[in-house]
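General statements about sequence and structure are easier to judge against a single worked case. For one protein, we set the task of working out the structure tokens from the amino acid sequence alone. This step matters because it turns folding into a mapping between discrete strings. The amino acid sequence and the backbone structure tokens for this protein are reproduced below.
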Amino acid sequence: MWSYILKRLLLMIPTLLGVLTITFLVIQFVPGGPVEQMVSQLQGRNAVGESGGAGGGAYRGRQGVDAKRIEEIRALYGFDKPPLERYTQMIGQFARFDLGKSFFHNKPVWQLIKEKLPVSISLGLWSFFLTYLISVPLGITKAVRAGSRFDTGTTFIVLLGFAIPSFVMGVLLLVLLGGGSFVQWFPLRGLTSANWETLSLGGRILDYLWHITLPVISMTLGSFAVITLMTKNSVLEEIRKQYVMTARAKGLSERTVLWRHVFRNALIPIMTGFPAAFVGAFFSGSLLIETLFSLDGLGRLSYESVMRRDYPVVLGSLFLFTLIGLITTLIRDLSYLWVDPRVKYE
């Protein structure tokens, strides 16, 4: 197993290099980079003209930026160096886990990610726990009562939630419960209230839960269907196997058969994805939900970085999230060994 782990760790290196190389090459051909944006701002500033005074001046249109100033701007953002040198420098920084410094925020990328993490962790962890705490028991109940009205009704509900996009559900909840057209039981924006610092500990907890309710509901409803139906199908598959019939023939109660035999085997596909989903919850980000509820998380950071051509943030966050994704995939594969000792990696 250790050789398998070492092999997977070594394979992460070319995967990371491939992702970063492709992204770096694409960036070289994307118009509207930071240099062009700065030049446009300078031109716009000069476009005002020198028409002040008592009517003596005249509008002189958009003024150009001299070549020396453009070279200074290129040197400021590091674009005065050849692409190969910039690429080598970037790989060297990432090898030291130095994600660089943002062009526009004037902050290290690590600091930006840390500032946005509370929102993403709040959305991700609450969605993760609610999904598993509700979907797994619901899936088991649906399997035990397969074909009943309860099974049919809950299937319709979870599939309806899955069919409605999260941002549409968010808009609907704001209209119904956020003061849109009916009642205002929940706030429209933010993770906490403006007076959060003056509240007591209990008041802060209640204020936080009050703000996070609608965003979490919007993100979670679509996840119920996948885990619920996966759990149901896995339990039904185990119930039909020969060892269950043998256990029943020995006189074991249905409760014993379900929890001591079926449950342990049926949840192997669910539990193997648990570690990866848990780690991924810390770095999950939803642009539409964060924008809709005015939450400043990783989703908005990534989108704004792409739109503003903030390349250090784009490449740094891409490197970090790709590395986390590769590690969580390895953890998921290894969890098969921990849950089911019969699995062997050669």
